[in-house]
Amino acid sequence: MGYIKLAGYKLQSFDKIPSTQDYAHELVASGRATDKMAILAAAQSAGRGRFRRKWVSHHGNLYVSFIFDCPERDARLSYAIAVAIAETIASFGVHPTIKWPNDILVADKKIAGTLIEYAGHFVIVGIGINVNSNPTVDRYRTTKLENYSEIPMTELLNRLMRNIDKWRRSDFRAVRQRWTELAACINKPILYRGEPATLVGINENGALVLRRDTRYLLVFGDEISV
């Protein structure tokens, strides 16, 4: 399987594989991974999201995993990626919001999600965007871009790559400001570890800032519920 260049990325494309994320891990483990590689699949038989939840991956949507050099973990990365996806969707005239940490919503329905995993000195960023179909999921409502705009898949990927480059390079103050503007639940009640709190924002290190009564909590990597 060969590679092509697109927007400065080394892209490998499949019609169907178990998981772009798992394939990216295989590239890292075998020593074949390099910075700015992208693994694209038209469909996945074993796609997965956070906490190894199944990601339904039928033909017609965008499923891609990016490999980047990353010598150490950075909590701020997920915000840059979320903003990049939201900006990509917005560039087609659709109006997205972000649900922490990096789910993308349109009209309060999930349209895209991200899985960020570290392997060796790389980070693997898996992204799924509902373009022409959206799964039925018990936990939340979903939607697709086709409901709002006609979007060519190659142009969607091209813009996504360019936005990822832009926001990964941006000062985190700009990322933080844009993420806050797009966030769906700032100053609204949420559940954190089963207890009510208010989402206040994110700090300069990428920690989520929650308020519970008179106390403030800094959260890294935990799941909250709106």
Task: Please tell me about this protein's structure.
- By secondary structure, the protein is an alpha+beta fold.
- It folds into 2 domains: 4-182, Bira Bifunctional Protein, Domain 2 (BirA Bifunctional Protein, domain 2), CATH 3.30.930.10; 189-225, no CATH class.
- It is 23% helix and 35% strand.
- The strands form 2 sheets. The protein has an 8-stranded mixed beta sheet with strand order 1-2-3-4-8-7-6-5, sandwiched between helices. Strands 12-11-10-9-13 form a 5-stranded antiparallel beta sheet, with no helix packed on it.
- Strand 11 and strand 12 form a beta hairpin.
- The longest helix has 17 residues, at 153-169.
- It is globular.
- It starts with a strand and ends with a strand.
Helix and strand topology:
Blueprint lengths: L3 E3 L2 E9 L2 H10 L7 E8 L17 E8 L7 H14 L5 E4 L3 E4 L2 E11 L2 E8 L23 H17 L2 H11 L6 E4 L2 E8 L5 E5 L2 E5 L4 E2 L1
Parallel strand pairs: 2-3
Antiparallel strand pairs: 1-2, 3-4, 4-8, 5-6, 6-7, 7-8, 9-10, 9-13, 10-11, 11-12
Helix pairs in contact: 2-3, 2-4
Secondary-structure arrangement, i.e. CATH architecture of the largest domain: 2-Layer Sandwich
In percent, how much strand structure appears in the residues? Answer: 25-35%
The residue fraction in helices comes out at 10-25%
Name the CATH class of the largest domain.
Answer: Alpha Beta
Low-confidence stretches: none
Output the structural class. Answer: alpha+beta
Q: Output the number of helix runs.
A: 4
Total of domains: 2
Can you list the strand order of the major beta sheet?
1-2-3-4-8-7-6-5
Order of helices and strands: EEHEEHEEEEHHEEEEE
Shape: globular
**Number of DSSP strand runs:** 13
Distance between the termini: 43 Å
Mean pLDDT, to the nearest integer, reads 90
Task: Tell me the CATH superfamily of the largest domain.
Answer: Bira Bifunctional Protein, Domain 2
Rg value:
17 Å
Main sheet summary: 8 strands, mixed
Predict the CATH topology of the largest domain: BirA Bifunctional Protein, domain 2
